[in-house]
């Protein structure tokens, strides 16, 4: 299915700044350099809807995007990149904790994970957040265009194992080659139907 109407709604940190309404929401979370903004842009066939900068870790707010009047994508700040990791982790928690706790229309989390890397403690913590909040979890295994077929199979299995998730929720994709987007949309559609 093609999606065309994508618009930026608002950026915010506090619940009072979040958009009102009842549309289901999908949060996109991941390490600062995992390709989160590129994935969102690829899913909606736009080049610059979500900001993708040269310096990882630029997103400091929750950014809300309405897609085709039927779902909201929430772009979370990237984590794990800043030099002052302790302060960065506190700031990230201050933004994310209330969102996971209070946002009733939140249906699923897309964890954006670089397919060339083993998930780290931050990735595991995000999955734990989602599990504790009873959210569906979709793992977008990005940058698979840089992997051989055997590396892709092996790394997908490894990511599933480290995150303690079934392999079928790990979706190989490439924003560069535009592969895997329909598969991710199919999983999102299951959660917002």
Describe the structure.
The chain is of the alpha/beta class. The protein is 34% helix and 22% strand. A 7-stranded mixed sheet has the order 1-3-4-2-5-6-7, sandwiched between helices. Strand 3 and strand 4 form a beta hairpin. It is globular, with a radius of gyration of 15 Å. Mean pLDDT is 89; it is low at 53-57.
Offer a few descriptive terms.
single chain, 193 residues, alpha/beta, seven-stranded mixed beta sheet, 5 helices, 34% helix, globular
Number of strands: 7
Distance between the termini: 14 Å
Compute the average pLDDT.
Answer: 89
Could you tell me the radius of gyration in angstroms? 15 Å
Q: Give the % helix.
A: 25-40%
- Please provide the ordered H/E string of secondary-structure elements: EEHEEHEHEHEH
Unreliable parts: 53-57
């Amino acid at each position: 299915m093609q999606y065309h109407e994508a618009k930026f709604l608002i950026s915010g940190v506090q619940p009072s700044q979040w958009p009102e309404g009842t549309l289901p929401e999908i949060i996109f979370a991941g390490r600062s350099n995992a390709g989160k903004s590129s994935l969102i842009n690829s899913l909606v066939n736009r080049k610059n809807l979500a900001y993708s900068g040269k310096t990882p870790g630029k997103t400091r707010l929750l950014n809300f995007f309405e897609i085709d009047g039927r779902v909201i994508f929430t772009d979370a700040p990237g984590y794990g990149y800043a030099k002052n990791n302790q302060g960065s982790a506190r700031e990230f928690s201050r933004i994310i904790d209330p969102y996971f706790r209070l946002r009733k229309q939140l249906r699923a989390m897309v964890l954006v994970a670089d397919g060339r890397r083993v998930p780290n403690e931050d990735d595991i913590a995000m999955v734990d957040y989602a599990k504790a909040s009873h959210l569906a979890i979709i793992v977008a295994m990005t940058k698979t265009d840089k992997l051989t077929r055997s590396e892709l199979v092996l790394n997908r299995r490894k990511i599933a194992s480290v995150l303690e998730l079934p392999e079928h929720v790990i979706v190989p994709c490439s924003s560069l080659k535009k592969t895997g987007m329909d598969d991710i949309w199919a999983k999102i559609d299951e959660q917002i139907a």
